[in-house]
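Protein 1 of 2
SEQ + STRUCT:
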Amino acid sequence: MYSEKLRRYSCALALLISACVPALASVTVFTDRNLWLAATSPITTLDFTGAVASNGEVTINSIDLQGFDHNNPPSSPDLQVFNGNYWGSGAVLEGPAGSTVGQHIIATLPVGTFAVGSDIMQFEPNGPTSFAETITAQLSIDSTIYSAQTNNGFTSRAFIGFVSDTQISSITFFPANDNLAHLALDNFSTGGQAENPAPEAATMLMCGSGILLMVWLFRRSKSSAAEPLGSVA
């Protein structure tokens, strides 16, 4: 009987704790900019017009972008603002071409960022040629690798965006494995609204009180079961 009580208390306590502990980060992926814009606010967008890269780095509005290329392991910076105007914007952020040594662009984001998205392109600037290839992206909040397809030609751009219920501190973009096709970003945007806010203080207080009550009842039951039976005259 005591074992059955112990099992019930243990199950109840486990359920209560699981209900009070926040879940892992939830991320929604978008390939349509308008849908991404509707899912987050306020929005900050960098179009890179007039921006200048220095030593492979561009910093605008507390967003820091760095590019890495050419070394194995990659450690030499490679990033510039390209003003070829092929996509009609006047400027894009040109990063490294792809290979097998981990070239990438990493954007460090300001505090309070819960959403990030960007137009994405792969092109050979000396051609010039635009490629339809697969790039990948990774957020700071987990190890998931997200894939996105760029478009062929200069008539349109692809987009990938994310909205998370956990704050995002950085995003890393990896070019396709093509030593001619450079990764390019434009209209790099961040948003500040989480989909699921943190639990309210009253909710956490209620959960904490419930756990303490369960522990007290468990100890009381255990103590009662341990008391010796009275002797019979």
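Protein 2 of 2
SEQ + STRUCT:
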Amino acid sequence: MNHSNGEGHRLALLVRFLEESLNALSVAMLVTYFVLVLLQIFFRFVVNESLYWAEELIRGLMIWGVMIASVLVGRARGHIRVEALELMVGPNVRRYVYQLCDLLSIVFCVLLAVASVQLMSRVWHQMSPLLEIPKWTVYMALCVGPVLESIIIVLTWGQTAEAVLKPGDSL
């Protein structure tokens, strides 16, 4: 994408804000379900009681965590792909291969988001058995993740993993 300096800088700031926010959210969810698992162990084996609601909450947080983390993996261009084609072509053609990968990722994300909206509409009036929250709030992660990933791919169109990763980062 060709952008003027100011617009390109604003896009870079937006991408950085999204990336840092999603990183913080992922860490918060990971810490939350780690603490909940430890509490479950403590309550079961020390107090001899069960936190009956914790497993359902952990499951929901894990679904949200995976979908949010997939956005970060998409940002780093780290999803599984066949790299043989990238290695067989020159740098000029490789740029088009990256754009094709981005386009295919967006198509997949859109299909997943549409399917998740259909799933949410089927469970709209159902409540989770223990937490008594609407089931669609968990399944909404299957829509939010792909939509955010599509947005971040569009904002960073055609970038390679090397261009995205900072020194010292790894996937």
